[in-house]
């Protein structure tokens, strides 16, 4: 067995590999860029080597520097994680030539399966059903349009070396095909150094289901059941679960056997994933094979009890698999939510900056350990750390394991309630809304679920809540508790002590100067026991909570049922307001005495400044292209600028016909949120 391995990656996956290596008694070496010098994976590893500047093309993608780090530290093996160089055939070969064990498949397997065009040809030869398409590189946008017309819309345009949703577009007409082809090539060239693009028929209403496979150097290959990955946004997975609520045992077995046959055809060693698109009648078609560890591997670990990273290390060391297909059982139900630094209420724009608060829910399952039926958090961040603009937006992966799907969903919803993130925006409200959607609960969804139900974007009113008045009652409970503390402060002037009221008015901020009001009556308050009866109109809530006033995460019971919520005092515009969060719903409200509420109603509303004549940067990022000049008239829908953030191109288009009056930012400039780019006449 290896004595020391190097992890050629960053973030949560580097921390994940370190956890298994530590369990196995293997020393670890981290590599890092200048932007990651204070990163969690650097602190966890036994040694760390600086690779270079922040951009990945100057650090994590430079094979020579990583090979040199292995030699410098005496690392016998290298785990590539996912992304970066994990599916780079030349890098895997270099490691082998340098005598460094590559903890992943052999270079010839990566070559056969990593190239999507070659893999489809091989799948056809192996008699695996594939989707109709054009499997040769497409050279021009006009050629792409011609091929799309022949295949028939809609079509999927995919970069041959793509992955993680990058270099991928769906086109429903000639215009979308022309523009999508260009964007795919650019993203593929920038992210993977390979701008080859191909095309296939887009199967409407599909399920995205993948099979986890594991092979050793003795030719043994098994499948570890499936993962349901159909909840996607812009072809990036949002929620994954195992098993799938859709496929039958017969389909599961057939897909698994095809995946094994394909893996054996390329002499596959290590962990890998064979992805299928599954139709409504459970007909399935090969999409691609990911020759690496997947982001969503924890859900497979939960239902099988296997540590996939450990298996990868053992296979790379030459050990045979310690089990057969018959030994692999499936137990319970696991769900993973990807917690990303993005603002779902601003079209999921990236959000970078410092994690002012980071308090994940309590983990009862541990990485690299066989503990099950609980909560697990895989992360590479910590409170006070930075979310840099140079890499992907993932903050953490939240994983739960339940006895069945209903229990797993309930556990995940409660875990999301207690996940505290401040300083950057996160997609937690969106995750909560998805989990609460009735179609998700019944398993009635496909890869178009998000596009179908949130076609106009995601809004605060899209977050359902069983009882929003509970948030009002909780704010009243906290306010009453604060008054109790204020009344107990010593040194108050006799006859003028703080009086503890029983009646309040909760003023809920609806935005744009609008509000709604609720009369509160709080009785039977027992401060020492943290208990009160709160009436909101004709609704009664008996709340019991021992959480302190300065705790962001509030736990307790309401009418005998346990709850976890988040509460904070003071907002940017109103230091007296409370912000209460529960079930993905966020409510800003002020709890006042009846007289104060009367006076507050007389306060005028100050409208925000008019920015309609400005193009503002919706995110921090790099301005890579300006498509308009001073004096130019741009029609609605035409491109104005392109901003690159977190390895993705973001196109800003005109929402109406405009004339450019002034250019306020130059290409190559790093932009902040809401920084003006153009002024219109």
UniProtKB/TrEMBL annotation:
Claim: Metal-binding is one of the keywords in the record: yes
EC number: 6.4.1.3
Domain Lipoyl-binding: 606-681
Single Gene Ontology MF annotation: metal ion binding
Residue span(s) of domain ATP-grasp: 120-317
Cofactor(s) in the UniProt record: biotin
Entry superkingdom: Bacteria
Pathway connected to this protein: Metabolic intermediate metabolism; propanoyl-CoA degradation; succinyl-CoA from propanoyl-CoA: step 1/3
GO BP terms in the entry: lipid catabolic process; malonyl-CoA biosynthetic process
All residue ranges annotated as the Biotin carboxylation domain in the record: 1-455
Record's keyword terms, sorted: ATP-binding, Biotin, Ligase, Lipid degradation, Lipid metabolism, Magnesium, Manganese, Metal-binding, Nucleotide-binding
NCBIfam families in UniProt: accC, PRK08591.1
UniProt name for this protein: Biotin carboxylase
Organism in which the protein naturally occurs: Roseateles puraquae
